Amino acid sequence: MTAIPELWFDPSRCLIAGEWVKAAAGTLPLYDPSTGAEIGAIARGGATEIDAAVTAATEAFHGVWHRTPAVERGRILTRLGQLVLERVEALAMIEARDVGKPYKQARADAVALARYMEFYGGAADKLLGQTIPYMDGYTVYTLREPHGVTGHIVPWNYPMQIIGRSVGAALAAGNACVLKPAEDACLTALAFADLAKQAGLPDGVLNVVPGLGAEAGAALTAHPGLHHISFTGSVATGAAVQIAAGANVIPVTLELGGKSPQVVFDDADLDAALPFLVNAGIQNAGQTCSASSRILVQRARYDEVVEKMAARYGALRVGPAVDDLDVGPLISAKQKGLVSGFIEQGHDLQLAGQATLGDLPSGGYYVPPTLFAGVSPDHTLAQNEVFGPVQVVIPFEDEAEAIAIANGTDYGLVASVWTDSGARQMRLAKAIRAGQVFLNNYGAGGGVELPFGGIGKSGHGREKGFEALYGFTTLKTVAAFHG
Ligand code: NAD
């Protein structure tokens, strides 16, 4: 077993009430996706640790955090952002080992985590209420108040970014948090919590309980001491989380993934579009909720787009995270099985392009990035989220058909439109059902300022930007009668 050299804390413990504690059920093994080798152990948190964490958060909320001035909350988050920046290289190395993410992509996640702390640190004291003109003799105003104790269930694909946008906003708004990271990737969550302690976050305001979804996750969502849940992950688990939250009548934010299209019209600047068409599908080995897995191309440019995308697929380099190539391994043997199954389901399609897997560590969870063409919009590969480096190209005739195909899945997270026509850009931006629409780009660099979230099976509620702060508060109306 090779330990991860960059770790400065014991990864086999939970952080509860400021103390690093062992889980009653012991530990779970930790694997390196690049090699399949066992590289350590993490805590197997469960109901006992979750209960202790919710109790600690409740005490910290009432005891100190709720009364900490917004400007001071902001200062702590800003200091935390600075500490994250000072540890960027270590955090990136940890994430690369834990998630199998190529180093540069892991580093970008660490920088984004710092940026979330800067943004929410700066925003903490700018969360304003309103005064409302009302009847003579009254003064009416609104207060934005924290929910109290918020639960955060995070997946394995972008731990640092998702913790940044969810926990960062919740803390800025004055909530105390219990974080349940994914069992496949929890190391940077623990590292982040340790840095938060160093930045001066009072004990108990942020508690981290790693463990299995069915154990620690289910215990957290069912806990009656929680006042809000933020969940990112699969549709099935999200639905279960919403039902559990319903039993306690608390609000949930669900971010559940997508089948996001890029729509390429015949007047598009293809040279500008091409890098985005492919990168948005293969970044993080396609394990991205906002991955673009459907490329819709107007008939006149269809052959040209397929040919150029296929050439890029042929040139993609796949390898271990530390080699920092274009595509790393998938997160787990389970995910490799799921994605390989999807690729097999494309046997009736045109295999337009595929990367070659070279000499790779035999135990690693690699699949070849794969491009299918000639795909009908109702094919299973055009309807279901693969969560791997697989894209389909679908032809369309005109604008009406493009809109119908773009909107023709259960999801609605992100979309982009490539066209020179300003009028068409405006029409498509309105017609497409998605939480974010990009015109002549994809992702806009992932800015922390930009509200993000879905409709349909992509979920509900908004993260990032100021919208997230509103979601982590409850609005109180105060009506004073003074005659
Ligand atoms: P998942 O939904 O099972 O897990 C996500 C998180 O939820 C993890 O922390 C997990 O421990 C927790 N969890 C699991 N069961 C739970 C339960 N019953 N109660 C509370 N929490 C629970 O997702 P997964 O198994 O990690 O991945 C499966 C699929 O989910 C992927 O193929 C992909 O389609 C989707 N996914 C989406 C995103 C996204 O960003 N939208 C991220 C990861 C996975």
Walk me through this protein's architecture:
The protein has 483 residues and is an alpha/beta fold. The chain folds into 2 domains: 14-256 and 461-477, Aldehyde Dehydrogenase, Chain A, domain 1, CATH 3.40.605; 260-448, Aldehyde Dehydrogenase, Chain A, domain 2 (3-Layer(aba) Sandwich). It has helices at 47-63, 70-86, 88-99, 103-123, 159-172, 187-198, 213-222, 235-247, 270-282, 299-315, 333-344, 380-383, 399-406, 422-431, 465-471, and strands at 14-16, 19-21, 27-31, 38-43, 131-132, 138-146, 149-153, 176-180, 206-208, 228-232, 252-255, 260-264, 292-298, 350-354, 370-373, 390-396, 414-418, 436-439, 459-460, 473-481. The strands form 5 sheets. The chain has a 7-stranded mixed sheet with strand order 14-15-16-13-12-17-18, with helices on both faces. Strand 7, helix 5 and strand 8 (176-180) form a beta-alpha-beta unit. The protein is globular and about 70 Å long. The relative contact order is 0.14. The mean pLDDT is 97. Residues 153-157, 180, 182-183, 213-214, 217-218, 221, 232-234, 237, 240-241, 255-257, 289, 338, 385, 387 line the site of nicotinamide-adenine-dinucleotide (NAD).
- Morphology call: globular
CATH architecture of the largest domain: 3-Layer(aba) Sandwich
Oligomer: single chain
Largest sheet: 7 strands, mixed
Q: What percent of the residues sit in helical stretches (DSSP H or I)?
A: 25-40%
- Low-confidence runs: none
Number of helices: 15
Average pLDDT level: 97
Briefly note the CATH topology name of the largest domain. Answer: Aldehyde Dehydrogenase, Chain A, domain 1
Rg of Cα set: 23 Å
Across the major sheet, the strand order is 14-15-16-13-12-17-18
